Amino acid sequence: MKKQYLILFCLSCMLMANAQNQPSQKGTFKFYEPGYYQNSILKGIEKFETAQEPLKQAGTFKLDPAGLNIPTDKSAFKSIRHLPPVSQGNTNTCWSYSATSMLESEIFRLTRQEVKLSEMFTVYCEYIERAEQYISTRGKINIGEGSEMNAVIKVMKKYGALPYSSFSGLLPGQEFQSHEKMFNEVRAFLDGLKARNAWDEASAVSTVKSIMHHYMGVPPATVTIQGKEYSPREYLTGILRINPDDYIDVLSYMQQPYWKQVSFDVPDNWWGDDSYYNIPLDDYMKILKKSLKAGITVSIAGDVSEAGFLAREANAAVVPAFDIPSSAIDENARQFRFSNGTTTDDHGLHVVGYLEKDGVTWYLVKDSGAGSRTGGIEKNINFGYYFFHEDYVKLKMMTFLVNKEVMKDLLPKFN
């Protein structure tokens, strides 16, 4: 027995000595390029599955622009001072971009300052407003990214404004705005409050802000101009020097009385604003043209889903004769399309110029959406702009936001 223990002891000593003579080893982190699994197996599976389910693409019925006498270059238009077009990215915030752009032009016209404002500060504040009203109405308001152009005026009156340089709403390294995930989180959170009957406003607003901070960053409490700090409201009144009360929304539809301030009955008017100045269509078109000829731009909203909306084909919007002849476009045709849902207020834009060509007025329209950017800035000389035929505006553009000075002759008719 002792002999066996002695043998085991000797073997152990030999193993230990051998281990001590082995070179030391260590592990390390390795970063591998995609290998056979990714490059061959997964791609092969994807190729097979794609072949089994061919892409089905539905065609979009559009007017053939061949032979149409459409402007081809924005330089032909009499243009009013405005800042270059800015993309709204993957957001439904055209209402903020269009009205903000109009106010930038107004700031230059009135104060000779060229200032790029933050569209996203307005969007941030509008989410707060929406959350507060969602709580106060016990979840009865429409929750969406969309709003109306006069929401920018509403927000400015309460919260003020910020320059783009102080709050872009973009995270470091982010090129385009993208609010899909943020909006889905906000909506899910508010829906959850409604399901639980949990109506604590302070807590709800705090959480909505927290969600926005994650995706947009935190807007500053102050902005420094020439060594002096200003709150957003002080910046609006002391630096920008524009009065939000000077801007009104003009509407033209038959379902409510003309020469009255009325509500615009669309989901994006989620707070039920009833301050729209409803005027006959002929006056509507005259005021639009009068404003531009006076050097005052307008932000405008309406429908951009028609066969004559030739975004990719010509950066233009016209009314095809097969839809309705020009001579038949009147308030009835306009109301008919709004009532049956073929006209909506799905996009807001900024009208920055006009061209009178062959007896027809065309409008130069600055855009924040993707459609006007077809081909990229290198290939599209009209990148970020549309040319709207006056018939398209007359039939499909429902409202515009403008300085009330161009309405001064008509305002006494309202009572």
Quickly describe the structure.
The protein is of the alpha+beta class.
Could you please describe the fold and organization of this structure?
Helices cover 39% and strands 14% of the residues. The chain has 415 residues and is α+β, with helices and mostly antiparallel strands. It has a single domain, classed as Cathepsin B, Chain A, CATH 3.90.70. Strands 1, 4, 5, 6, 7, 8, 9, 10, 11, 12 and 13 form an eleven-stranded mixed sheet that branches. A two-stranded antiparallel sheet has the order 2-3.
Unreliable segments of 5+ consecutive residues: none
Secondary-structure element order, N to C: HHEHHHHHEEHEEEHEEHEHEEHEHE
The proportion of strand residues reads 5-15%
CATH class label: Alpha Beta
Span from first to last CA? 118 Å
How many beta-strand runs? 13
| CATH H level, superfamily name | Cysteine proteinases
Q: State the major sheet.
A: 11 strands, mixed
Tell me, briefly, the overall form.
globular
Number of helices: 13
What is the rounded Rg? Answer: 30 Å
Q: What is the share of helical residues?
A: 25-40%
User: How many structural units, i.e. domains?
Assistant: 1
Q: Structural class of the helix and strand makeup?
A: alpha+beta
Mean pLDDT over the residues: 94
Report the CATH topology name.
Cathepsin B, Chain A
Specify the CATH architecture: Alpha-Beta Complex
